[in-house]
Amino acid sequence: MSAPTELVKGNAMILILSCLAREPMHGYRIVRELKDISEGYFAMGEGTLYPHLHQLERDGLIEGCWETTSNGRERRMYRITDDGMAALARKREEWSKFQANMVRVLNTTPEGMTA
Amino acid sequence: MTNCCDEFLMEIDRRLDLPLDKRISVMRELVSHYHEIRDELVESGMELTQADEEAIRRLGSPSDIATRLNAAHNSASWKSALLAAMPFFAWGICLLVQSDRARTLLEIVLGALLLCGSIRELVCRRRPIWLATWLGGAWIAVIALIAHLWPNQCILITVNFLYAVVLVTVWPSRVWRWKGIGYVLVAAGGLWLIVLLAHYHVRPANDGMRTAVGVSGYLACCLATIGSIQVFAMRVFGDRRSGNTAAASLFLFSVFAGLYVALDFHARVLPVAGVSLMGLMIIAFAISRTWGGKAAWLASAVVLTQILLLTIGRSFDAGAGTQSLVSAENLQFLMILLLLSLVACVCILGPMLGERSEQKNRPAIVR
Prior knowledge:
The structure holds 2 protein chains of 2 kinds. Chain A is an alpha+beta fold. Helices cover 60% and strands 14% of the residues of chain A. Chain A starts with a helix and ends with a helix. The relative contact order of chain A is 0.15. By secondary structure, chain B is mostly helical. Chain B has helices at 3-15, 20-43, 48-59, 62-74, 78-96, 100-123, 131-149, 153-169, 174-202, 212-236, 245-263, 270-287, 291-317, 328-358. Chain B is elongated. Residues 204-213, 318-325 and 362-367 of chain B have low confidence and may be disordered. Chains A and B meet through α4 and β3 of A and α2 and α4 of B.
């Protein structure tokens, strides 16, 4: 089962920044990491990753540069910037609060609500 | 690459509205991603044809990818949008100054700032999104300043000519340099004509020049001029070597916004309100991500300008008791501006239509 497309799109920024916070990666690797870590839950149209990456780059949260691998293949590697780390920290905090409150609301039974 | 992949990548390439260097970079990245998927699938034992099809399926819809990439690259950041609107806000501040001498001084500083800033970016071969409005703003600021200092039409022509030469000489695209000079001259001459005619038509109430022949001639000039300016914008900003249609539209927006203000330059309050409104609209236009959003802001700008012109601007003229808001004078004025607004909308949104019709003939960079 994979995540609803709109949910993935809406949270692509935090997902990408989380991957890049670990180490610099190219686009394909980011997709692979997301898929592997989430056991296939976060599967996105791989081409639509790039608009998100380019937007993050324009916002100064990540930076990209071309690198050539040992087999001569060109890859554009992305790394997170200091602003990106700060943005990720803010997003993590927002998510923690959101998740905690979401769980609290979902776990509230009708009896609890009337109490 | 197979034909299937070729078609997929060319479809994306055709739909991208980005300057050439960005377009090449984006396509390289997508091709690299496609190779990664395909090679991995082949290594896992899949046949090349199947791997190819699977790689394309995983990349997603070409139109979706291109639309999102256009949106990511063609919307300005807040900083760029504010810089794009800066000429209009600065112009508004100039108009607020009561002293003629101080106002002239401020106009000189503004014109010089816009010109120097634009030329610096052009010489450094940079194309920030705000460059379009700075060039448009510098053009109008310089014309307004010279017209104020030396109300002699020959000087206006000379200034337009010099501006055109400076602009096109520093433009890096050699292909368009000489063609650009021609377009700029036509557009500059036309712009001068439109401002001059607007001056005669809008300001004097009873000087006998507002005849039917005069109005139709004026409108014919407007249409020809707007057409010329649009051609210039598309050739210089939208040639895809150094710009794109979003930048061309922003340039057109700034020129038309300047024209609106110039048309009612003699009303006492409107210029300040008008340039401020246009500044805000340029910010909204610049940060809009889609053409639909840009079109919505453009339509709002036109409607708000009409309301502003009809209420604040003309009611000030009517303050002396010589006019009412529904006078034939005002209605005629409104008709002219409405027609100009419609033509301006078509011109500014024209790049979008042109881009779509161009897709079939556009040479692909992916082979």
